[in-house]
Structure formats: structure tokens, C-alpha cells
Amino acid sequence: MSGLFDAGVFLEATITLVVIMDPPGTVPVFLSLVGRKSPAARAQAARQAVLVSLLVISLFAVAGQAILTYLGIGIPALQGAGGLLLLLIALDLLTGRGTQPEAVEDVNVALVPLGTPLLAGPGAIAATIVFVKQASGHLGAYVALALAIVAVHLVIYVCMRYSGLVIRLIRESGILLLAKIAGLLLAAIAVQLIANSVRGFIAGG
To answer: How much is the pTM?
Structure first.
């Protein structure tokens, strides 16, 4: 049975992805974007965001290196693009423009920025590609990595799906405050991603 499942890879991949994707940390951003919507709309947004993230991470697990090589894209370029995208979202949250309800917002925030690049961001994508390389054709390692990816996304879904409990405590004013805090945190993450991107380009010559 050990040949079909590598527990060491499962634990390492799960811990790494949980740290990078930060399920509890997604709750403030999630609430700042969909906190004013109905429970059904929040549940739908949570499902969509997790499915988008799972799809993106799975795609890069299967063909990530080939995709990046074919397009001539490196990890620093992914970090830079993700940083700029998150910075735009952060500015919307800080200025209040991103808090106005719109008819299509449910789908949009699930795709961007929740599904990607917040969840399936450059860090998670890079870590997944590294784990696939380390698997080196071992079936047990591939199975463990696949289960780790699914397990982490289940944790993320639970955190976002039941974030409504937080809404009952913080009310409308609390959601507004969360939007500002989430905007500041997203801006900091964006700047860090851009800085990592610049360092990566410099190191790569």
C-alpha cells in the first residue's frame, strides 16, 4: 500500500500549500467582497472560488512546466502579474469602489481575485510544480500530491463557506472595516510579489 501513497509527500505538500494559500487568511478578503450578499450567494462564490483554484492548481500540476516553457514564462513573471492584479483589487477595497454590489460581481470575485491569484497564486503554482518535479515518476508521490491539493481546497472551502458565522458577529460596520484591512493586506502581498518578481528577474540575469 505504501507504493500507492507516500505519506511524507502528503504531509509536506499539505503543510506547504496551507501555509502559502492561508485558508483562515482568505476569510477577511472573502467577507470584504461578498459579505453583504445573501447566504446562497456567498456559498456560490465560495464554491466557484475553490473550483477555480483547484482547476488552476491541477492544470499546473499536470502541465505547468510545459506551459511555462512553451510560453517562455518564468515564475518571476507570474509573481509580477499576480502582484499587479492583487494591487488593483487592493486599491478598489481601500477606496471603496470594490464594495458596491453589482449583478455580475458574484462570478467575478470568485474568478478574480479569490480563485486566482489569491488562492491559486504564483506561490502555490510554483510549489506545486516543484513537488511534481520531486515526485520523479513515483506513483505514490503523485497520488499523495493530488490528495494534498484536494485536502487543502476542502479546508479553504470550509473556511469560506462558514464565514457567515463571522458576519453575525461583526455586522455591517465590521464588514466595512474588514474591507479596509483586507485591502491593506492585499496591497502588502502585492508589493511583496512584485518585489520577489524583480529579485527573480535580477537573479536570472
So the answer is: 0.78
State pLDDT tens for residues 123-141.
899 899 989 988 888 999 9
Of 3-12, 43-52, 142-151, 167-176, the one with minimum mean pLDDT is 167-176
SS3 6: coil
Q: Of 149, 125, 21, 20, which Cα lies nearest the Cα of 73?
A: 125
CB atoms within 10 A of CB 160: 25
Supply 121's cell numbers. Answer: 497564486
Residue 31 corresponds to which cell in the numbers above? Answer: 467577507
CA-to-CA separations, 165 to 12, 22, 127, 185, in angstroms, rounded: 31, 19, 32, 22
Q: Are 24 and 150 in contact (CB under 8 A)?
A: no
Sign of the CA dihedral running 83, 88, 108, 164: positive
**Whole-angstrom distance between the N-terminal and C-terminal Cα of the chain?**
45
| Amino acid, single-letter form, for residue 194 | I
Q: With helix as H, strand as E and coil as C, how does 136-148 read?
A: CCCHHHHHHHHHH
Q: Which residues of 108-144 are buried (b: 16+ CB within 10 A; e: fewer)?
A: ebbebbbbbbbbbbbbbbbbbbebbeebeeeebbbbb
